[in-house]
Amino acid sequence: MGDVYIENGISEMPLTAYNDTVINTSLVIESLEFFSSMDDIFDRLLILASYIGHQFIQFVEDLALREFDRYLENLVNISARQHLESLRHGICKSFSEDSSSSSQSYISDRNPEFYEKALGLRDELLVYPRSEIVQTDSSHAAVSFISKGLMLPLYGLQFAWRLAMSCWRSSFLYFTSAHHRVCCIATRVQRTLRGSSDDIGWLQRIPSMPSVDDGTERFLELLAGIRKGKHELPDSFVYLLIPGLFSNHGPLYFVGTKRFFSKMGLACHIAKIHSEVSVEHNAWELKQYIEELYWGSGKRVMLLGHSKGGVDAAAALSIYWNDLKDKVAGLALVQCPYGGTPLASDILREGQIADKETRRIMEFLICKLIKGDIRALEDLTYDKRKEFIMKYKLPAEKIPLISFHSEASIAPGVLATMTHIAHAEVPWLPLAKFGNEESDNIVQASHQLPVVIPLSAAMAVCALHLQLRYGEKSDGLVTCRDAEVPGSVVVKPDRKLDHAWMVYSSRKKNASEADASEMCEALLTLLVELGKGKGLN
Per-residue confidence of the chain (537 residues) as pLDDT tens digits? Predict the structure, then answer.
């Protein structure tokens, strides 16, 4: 570190050596301060660790003593219970003399060695807690570990049991749900396949309903007389024709019959009602219509309703009979689904396959396209008809009633039959006028084109469906048994007539057979005779 010179007892060093010495000294001091601070930290950590260890040992000691005391307490209680049982059975009668002694003395008497060892172990724990706490804690931990090891299989069995039970419950719920779904599907399939088998002809199976009479023979006699020019229908009545479902979209509905009656000088009207609404709504409309005709003409009204029109007319008489009993002379129901129709029930039946989808389709067709009410079709189902007939009784004994039903032909030739339902107006073309006024009318008439559809073919397909599925004869829409009104006179001709024949004219006409207008006249003539026979006309 350089040379050192001593002068006058004072050491002198070169400047560089002095600076090095100062720097080294400061480093040593700083290092000493650092190590002293580290020692202080280590001391504090040791103190904290010893405190924590002391507290932990104290905790373990208290825990061990508490467990040991609890064990002694349990042992005393068990011994006391055994002592009571021995007293109850009279095994230890001499103990009654020392009944005031404590349960500990009993234990010492019964098992003095065990009791002395237990107290000695407890005294050792109390006298030498610090010296033996590690061993006690170790033994307690060992016992706890061993007990837990022995309990582990039990815990595993318990877990396995709970897992098995949960799996069984889940499987049971799954199979229950699957069984429920399968049962629901099977019920839907069965309900769909069953259809209306139990509902067709339900009116004939009710004993309280009045019986029907057969008036077919008299009807055929009257029809033969009408075809020979013998018209007996009186002009003392107003004849009201009531159209059926979807008649608003067929402009020629009942038009030929009305024209035929008007040519005979009879007062005949077609009820202007909205056929695509509910039965009760049309019943109210018909009540108003009948009262207007009665008060306007002073004559009683003869009703002839076709299809749903007959249901509406019967509903008007059933609900408002007190208001109409002096204004209505009779009712003829032509091909009327008075008991209901299987087609409406099969379409709208709840609980069958695709019931909701089918209902949405029908609601779209009837409500959106036709601007009608789904209740018009729903009121023709068997459930609705049962509900209505049981609620409102038709006064069959107070008014003449006729039920007319027929059977549609399912021969292959019917498929080519076209039905005339309307006229289509074509634009008028300016043509040269030749001839008189009659020829002008012929030219004007030539501007109307007939609208024809294969309606008879559709009725034949529906009739074949009902015959194959239910074994029932029908006109295509209404079965013969459902068209018979209890208490009425039934007319059932042998001629094959579909549901639309009575109101629309066919393109193929047979001059040797009666048309729809003549049949309507024969029905109303028979209705007048029934009224006279009952003394009602």
Answer: 444 333 344 334 344 444 454 444 454 445 445 445 656 676 676 677 667 766 766 766 666 666 666 656 665 566 556 555 554 555 444 434 444 444 444 444 445 554 555 455 455 444 444 444 444 444 555 555 555 566 667 777 877 888 888 888 888 888 888 989 899 999 989 888 998 999 999 999 999 899 999 999 999 999 999 999 899 899 999 999 999 988 877 778 888 899 999 999 999 999 988 888 899 999 999 999 999 999 999 999 999 999 999 999 999 999 999 999 999 999 999 999 999 999 999 999 888 888 888 889 988 888 888 778 889 999 999 999 999 999 999 998 899 999 999 999 888 777 666 665 655 555 554 544 444 444 344 344 445 666 666 778 888 999 999 999 999 999 999 999 999 999 999 999 988 999 988 887 655 567 778 888 999 999 999 999 998 876 555
**CB distance 473 to 480 below 8 Å:** yes
Report d(CA 68, CA 66) in Å as an integer.
Answer: 5
Provide the token pair at 445: 């008439």
Count the neighbouring beta carbons within 10 Å of the beta carbon of residue 324.
Answer: 21
Nearest residue to 521 (alpha-carbon basis) of 142, 272, 263, 345: 263
Distance CA 379, CA 336 (A): 13
Task: Return the structure tokens found at 124.
Answer: 């050792």
Output 364-369 pairs: Cβ under 8 A, ≥24 positions apart.
366/276
Cβ burial of 479 (10 Å; 0-12, 13-18, 19+) is buried
How many whole angstroms from its chain centre is CA 214? Answer: 44
Residue among 535, 459, 534 at smallest CA distance from 499: 459
- Backbone phi, then psi, for 239, in 5-degree steps? -100, 120
Torsion of CA 27, 31, 34, 38, to 10 degrees: 170
In whole angstroms, give the CA distance from residue 200 to residue 283: 25
HEC string of 218-244 equals: HHHHHHHHHHCCCCCCCCCEEEEEECC
Rounded to whole angstroms, how far apart are CA atoms 84 and 70?
21
Q: Where are the beta strands (DSSP E) in 387-529?
A: 401-404, 419-425, 448-453, 489-491, 505-506
CA gap 514, 223 in Å, rounded: 8
Neighbours of 283 (CB within 10 A): 22
